[in-house]
Amino acid sequence: MRAYLTSLTIALVLSTQAAAQVGADIERAEQLFAARKYSDALRVVDVAFRKQGLPKLSVIKLYELQGVCAAQLGQEGKAKAAFQSMLQLDPKRELPKYVGTQSLVVGAFRQAKEWLEGKAALDFIAAPPLTDEQGMVVQIAAKVKNDTMKLSR
After folding, report:
1. What is the rounded distance in angstroms from the CA atom of residue 65 to the CA atom of residue 59?
2. Which residues are bridge partners to 139 per DSSP?
3. 39 CB contacts (<8 Å, ≥6 apart)?
4. Each residue of 101-116: b (16+ CB within 10 Å) or e?
5. Which pLDDT belongs to residue 109?
6. Where are the alpha helices (DSSP H) in the chain?
7. Which residues pair with 4 in a beta bridge?
8. What is the SS3 assignment for 143?
9. Would you tell me how many other CB atoms lie within 10 Å of the CB of residue 80?
10. 5, pLDDT greater than 60
11. Average pLDDT rounded to a whole number, residues 131-149
12. 90 with 60: CB under 8 angstroms?
């Protein structure tokens, strides 16, 4: 039991550290976007996506930043794919106010919204845990539904 709690504690600490690091990455990417350094902002987003254990809201924000930066660089396909991923995780999400009416961004976002129509949101369903003879949890799993963009890992 002690080993299990130690492992759980370590996992929570690592998850908290990952969340803090990605928060700094998001802030940096937003600063670069505001400075119109879209390529640099995209590089920061790409590095942040490589981190494990990202909270859902951070992943949504990273897709948002990826979409707005890619759109500003004229990378319509990448922007649309980023917005589609963002909207599959949060179908009611709207563009942030700082985007304003930038036509490249708004156009890619509208295309992603149109793509989303009639599609269900990504959903995770916890499966019962696998336990050993002593009742210790040895494996957890989740079923994924509606993963059109193949976002689950």
Report:
1. 10
2. 130
3. 69, 73
4. eeebbeebbebbbebb
5. 94
6. 2-34, 38-49, 56-72, 76-89, 103-116
7. none
8. strand
9. 21
10. no
11. 75
12. yes
**Cβ(138)–Cβ(130) under 8 Å?**
yes
Give the pLDDT of residue 13: 45
Distances (CA, A) of 152 to 6, 9, 10, 134: 27, 24, 23, 31
The position carrying tokens 């803090």 is 20
Instruction: Return the amino acid letter for 137.
Output: V
Determine how many CB atoms are found less than 10 A away from the CB of residue 55.
14
Residue 153 corresponds to which amino acid? R
Residue 9, both tokens: 């504690």
Question: What's the sign of the alpha-carbon dihedral 64, 67, 73, 74?
Answer: negative
The model's pLDDT over 25-52, given as tens digits with 9 standing for 90+, comes to: 999 999 999 999 999 999 999 999 999 8
Q: Which amino acid is at 74?
A: G
Tokens representing 77 are 């396909």
In terms of C-beta distances under 8 Å and separation of at least 24 residues, what long-range contacts does 91-94 make, across chains too?
91/116, 91/121, 93/60, 93/64
Task: Check whether 10 has a pLDDT greater than 50.
Answer: no
Question: What's the pLDDT score for residue 44?
Answer: 96
Separation CA 80–CA 111 (nearest Å): 7
Q: Model-level pTM?
A: 0.71
